[in-house]
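Backbones bend. Our protein:
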Amino acid sequence: MMKNRQKTNITTALCTWMALCLLLCGCGQQETINMAGSDQIELLDPVGSVAAYEEAACRNLYESRVYSANVYPYTVEYHFAVNGDVETIDKLPGEEVKKNTTLAQLDKGNLEKKIEEKEDYIQSMEESYLETKQSIEEYIDSKMGEYRNYKYAKETYENVEPAAFVCAPEYADDPTQDPNYEQWKAEYDHWQTQYKHWEGKFLILDDDINAKKRKLEQTTALYELDLAYQKSLLKELKADRKDHIISSGIKGKVVSINLLMDGNYLSSEKAMVAVGDESRKILKCEYITKSLLSKAIDIYALIDGVRYEVKHKEIDSQEYTELTAQGETVYSTFEIVDAPEDVQMGDFGVIVLIEKRALDVLSVSKNAIHKDEYGNFVYVLSEDGKREVRPVEIGINDGVYTEIKSGLSKGERVMVSEARSAGTKTQTLKKGLSSNEYTGYGYIFYPSSEMEVNPVEYGTTYLTEILVKQYQTVKKGDVIATVRVAADEVELARQEQKLLRLKERLADLESLNQESNAKLIEQRKEAIAELETKIAEMKSDAKTTKIKATKSGIAIWVSNHQKEDILFYNEELVEIADAGSCYVIVENTNQLLNYGDDVTITYTDLEGQTKSTTSVVANLSKMGVSSALATDYSLLLIPEENAQNLAATQVGANNWWSRTRFNAAATIREMDNVVLVPKKAVWIAEGNTYVNVKDSEGKVYATSFVAGGFNDEYYWVIEGLTEGMDVCLE
């Protein structure tokens, strides 16, 4: 074996000498030398190479994967329990909510009417039963005096019943012959007549009373049975009402809603609203398979140059299959362990998977290493130009460079098929901020508003004047319109007469048994209170001259009613939008904007001056929510103090969604406190990024680094390079 290796070395030396001669003569053609009893050896000097060798150098080698990510709150999505049309969205993106806060409601249709009818029916049952019970009890009470008298008389006659007749012995055969018999018989007949008289009256009345009691018992049993059934139906109706309401299960902030731009109908399978808990900070990124995660020797997140430990939220294969079958895009989720306050919603970060890492290890280009039946070797070029074969032990490689564990020393020159040249200009690496810019435009959007209506229910209302203009700021209590009302005197008199009759009936009930009539008395009092309220409202309506705003906000719509127009009850006058829920909606097709990002809105005010305000993205991007809540737009929440300024620019528009356009700009994908590498210094091979570093001795060597991303000028570094290094430019 050793003899064969020596023969190969001699052959190699000869080949090296001839190759050098060819290079010195300027010949670029490769030459093959055949030697008896040996394999064909091909010289490795490449055609047109800048240098046919490189020095073995210490460098970093990585096998890594980097995934762009963003910080999201821990989010819970909520669905309705039934299908239906959405009636109200009670909380909007950016609004704080507590646990059990109502978030949205479905149109209940006739459900509320059914509940009201069922409650009225149960109340009428109670009233009917109480009236029947009262009638029977009053009847029994009215007969109890007679009953006690009859019973007393009956019992009295029972106590004075004459003793049995005892005749003299001599009349034993015929007692009627006894002279005392007729007297006794007369007394006994008189007693029996009186006793049967009172006994008959007692038994008839007792039977009557017992019959009434049995009727009351039967009526009570049927009533209680029917009442229980009706109450169960009412309970079911109220449960159905709960199915039409979504409440938050956590404390947090609304981070997404289904705006249902194509209609109001929503399936129970689709999410309606999402609430985020910002105290729990989540990173989401492109889906990473279990096999890749299992291969990694190190997994962490990097945000603004700071490493954070993360906990991966696993998803099993069945859930993954189900979600993808439903058309959902699955993302990987990592929760930041003990996330500090410095980490903010919307922060850009990366998830780093290091599969292999070898720092400052001796290595050479992968193409410098050859392999034969004896193992790996390189061609080493000595200072006098001789070339020798050097067996080497190799370690990991990153696709371009291979670690040399033994066989070479730092600085030794090895032959390569191609060597990369380094520029002469250098630049010292510094830490800084890497970012990109977003620009777009949007339109003002008021998803939360209430209609101010004519509140006068009784009488005829005539408009005098509407006092607000479109896009004017309105405060609660401000007069928005003046009116005059022609009262309905006939109806008022009718209701007052009805109230008088109710009070008379109440007085009659209160004069009877208070305890047995307590429920009925209470119901009568409630009816009187309701009627008194109605009469007060009728009198108040007749005196109405002003209609006031019931909430503060921006008047985004004003009716075109004219003076002396008749206004019906609940007729719409002014729509007031909540100034705290004013948004600019911008296109976000590429999902460049993320929840929590600050966006500058620029606009021209009524004086022609350019103004700006800072808004915040209030809804999650597609990565943060299911497909039901995913959108191609972002809602930029405008500070309440600036909402009116933006609204004022829209004077002349006549709908709730004005087409006045605003410019939007934001700094995105910000990564601060990271080493920045000029793009001119970076070259890419086998998916890895490399630079040529000039050390303190003036020597240049290539090394890889883990890049997190780049912009127009720089790459930024995750691992492999440090501040103060000098890198060569092209």
